C-alpha cells in the first residue's frame, strides 16, 4: 500500500496524488464507509497504470463541510475592502465556521486600492481579535508577495464570498492568467460546472492551493451557547470568570464577558456577533 492525498473527487472516482506527475484514479473499497473529502490522506493499493483502490482513510487534522475539504494547513478568508463592502457579521460567521472545523484562518482584504481607510480599519479590528490580516490588491499587486511567501510546503485554502475578487487574486498569486492553465491533470477539466467543488492545485511536490468556492457558513443554531463563545477566540480568552457558571453573557449580573466589553478588552462588534447568534439559538428553541 502507498500513501496519497485526494486532489479531486469526480463521478465516483477519487484522483489521488502519490507524489508523481500523474494522479491515480481510485475507487474506494466497498467496506470503507467514511465519507472521503478532497484533501484527505489515505492508503491505496495500486492496480497498475495509475489506477488504484482506496483501502484506508488516515486521521484528519481538520475539515470544513461546505465545500468539503480536509487537512488544510492554512486558510485565507478573502473579503473586499470595498465593493462589495464587507459585513462584520458575515466575516465573523465565516471565521467561526473555520474555527469550528479546527482551522484558525487568516484574513485577506482585497481591493485595498479602492478604499485604503476602510482596509486599514478592518486590519486593525481583526488584528485585535487575534487574526493575521493581509491587505492586498489583485489590481495593483500590493501585498501579493507576502501571501506567496506563505505557500511553500503547505496546503493553503482560499475562500470568500462572490465578487470579492478571489479569482483575480488567485491568478495573481499563482502567476497565471487563466486558472485553468496548469490544472493538475489534463484528465480533469476545470470548468464552470466544477466550481462548486473544492479543487486542489498542486504547485510543487508538497505545495497545494485549494480554491473553495461556495463557502457557506455553519448553521450555528444547533450549537450550545458555550460552544459559540469558543468560536470567538478573542472573547473566549478574555480571562474572567462569571458569577454564574450558566452565564450566557447577556444580562446576568457579575458577567466577566460584559465587563471585558465595557473595559474595551473585547470589541463591541464582536460581542454583538455573539449576541446575535445566541438570540438565533434561543429563537430556535422557542
Ligand atoms: N479595484 C479592484 N478591483 C478588483 C480587484 N480584484 C478584483 N477586482 C474586480 O472585482 C470583480 C470581481 O472579481 P473576480 O475575480 O471575478 O471575483 P470573484 O470573487 O472570483 O467572483 P466570483 O467569480 O463571483 O466568485 C472584477 O470586476 C474584478 O476586476 C482589486 O484588487 N481592485
Ligand atoms: Zn457572563
TrEMBL record:
**Which positions in this protein are listed as binding GTP?**
110-113, 160-168
What cofactors does this protein use? Zn(2+)
Does the keyword Hydrolase belong to this entry? yes
Pfam family name, one: RsgA_GTPase
Question: Molecular function (GO) terms listed?
Answer: GTP binding; GTPase activity; metal ion binding; rRNA binding
Q: How is the cofactor bound?
A: Binds 1 zinc ion per subunit.
Subcellular compartments: Cytoplasm
Tell me which residues make up the EngC GTPase domain.
Answer: 70-216
Q: What is its EC number?
A: 3.6.1.-
Principal place where this protein is found? Answer: cytoplasm
Where is Zn(2+) bound in this sequence?
242, 247, 249, 255
- One Gene Ontology cellular component: cytoplasm
Q: Which InterPro entries match?
A: G_CP_dom, NA-bd_OB-fold, P-loop_NTPase, Ribosome_biogen_GTPase_RsgA, RsgA_GTPase_dom, RsgA_N
Per UniProt, residues of the CP-type G domain are 61-218
Enzymatic class: hydrolase
Q: Which GO terms describe its biological process?
A: ribosomal small subunit biogenesis
What does the similarity note say?
Answer: Belongs to the TRAFAC class YlqF/YawG GTPase family. RsgA subfamily.
* Protein's job: One of several proteins that assist in the late maturation steps of the functional core of the 30S ribosomal subunit. Helps release RbfA from mature subunits. May play a role in the assembly of ribosomal proteins into the subunit. Circularly permuted GTPase that catalyzes slow GTP hydrolysis, GTPase activity is stimulated by the 30S ribosomal subunit.
Quaternary structure, per UniProt, is: Monomer. Associates with 30S ribosomal subunit, binds 16S rRNA.
Q: Which HAMAP family match?
A: GTPase_RsgA
What is this protein's record name? Answer: Small ribosomal subunit biogenesis GTPase RsgA
Q: Which organism is it from?
A: Megasphaera cerevisiae DSM 20462
State the taxonomy lineage.
Bacteria, Bacillati, Bacillota, Negativicutes, Veillonellales
- Give the gene that encodes this protein: rsgA
Amino acid at each position: 500500500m502507498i500513501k496519497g492525498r485526494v486532489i479531486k473527487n469526480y463521478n465516483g472516482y477519487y484522483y489521488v496524488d502519490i507524489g508523481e506527475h500523474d494522479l491515480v484514479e481510485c475507487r474506494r473499497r466497498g467496506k470503507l464507509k467514511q465519507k472521503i473529502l478532497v484533501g484527505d490522506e489515505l492508503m491505496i493499493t495500486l492496480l497498475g497504470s495509475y489506477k488504484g483502490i482506496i483501502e484506508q482513510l488516515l486521521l484528519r487534522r481538520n475539515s470544513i463541510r461546505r465545500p468539503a475539504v480536509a487537512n488544510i494547513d492554512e486558510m485565507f478568508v478573502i473579503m473586499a475592502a470595498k465593493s462589495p463592502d464587507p459585513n462584520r457579521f458575515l466575516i465573523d460567521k465565516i471565521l467561526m465556521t473555520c474555527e469550528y472545523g479546527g482551522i484558525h484562518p487568516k484574513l485577506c482584504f482585497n481591493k485595498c486600492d479602492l478604499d485604503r481607510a476602510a482596509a486599514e480599519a478592518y486590519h486593525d479590528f481583526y488584528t485585535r481579535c487575534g487574526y493575521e490580516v493581509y491587505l492586498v490588491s489583485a489590481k495593483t499587486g500590493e501585498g501579493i508577495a507576502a501571501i506567496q511567501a506563505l505557500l511553500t510546503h503547505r496546503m493553503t485554502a482560499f475562500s470568500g464570498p462572490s465578487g470579492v475578487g478571489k479569482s483575480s487574486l488567485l491568478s495573481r498569486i499563482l502567476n497565471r492568467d487563466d486558472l485553468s492553465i496548469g490544472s493538475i491533470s489534463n484528465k480533469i477539466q476545470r470548468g464552470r460546472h466544477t466550481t462548486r467543488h473544492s479543487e486542489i492545485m498542486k504547485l510543487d511536490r508538497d505545495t497545494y492551493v485549494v480554491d473553495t468556492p461556495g463557502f457557506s457558513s455553519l448553521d450555528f443554531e444547533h450549537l450550545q451557547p458555550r460552544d459559540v463563545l469558543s468560536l470567538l477566540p478573542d472573547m473566549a480568552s478574555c480571562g474572567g470568570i462569571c458569577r454564574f457558571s450558566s452565564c450566557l453573557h447577556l444580562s446576568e449580573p457579575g458577567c466577566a464577558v460584559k465587563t471585558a466589553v465595557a473595559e474595551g478588552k473585547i470589541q463591541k462588534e464582536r460581542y454583538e456577533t455573539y449576541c446575535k447568534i445566541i438570540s438565533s439559538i434561543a429563537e430556535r428553541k422557542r
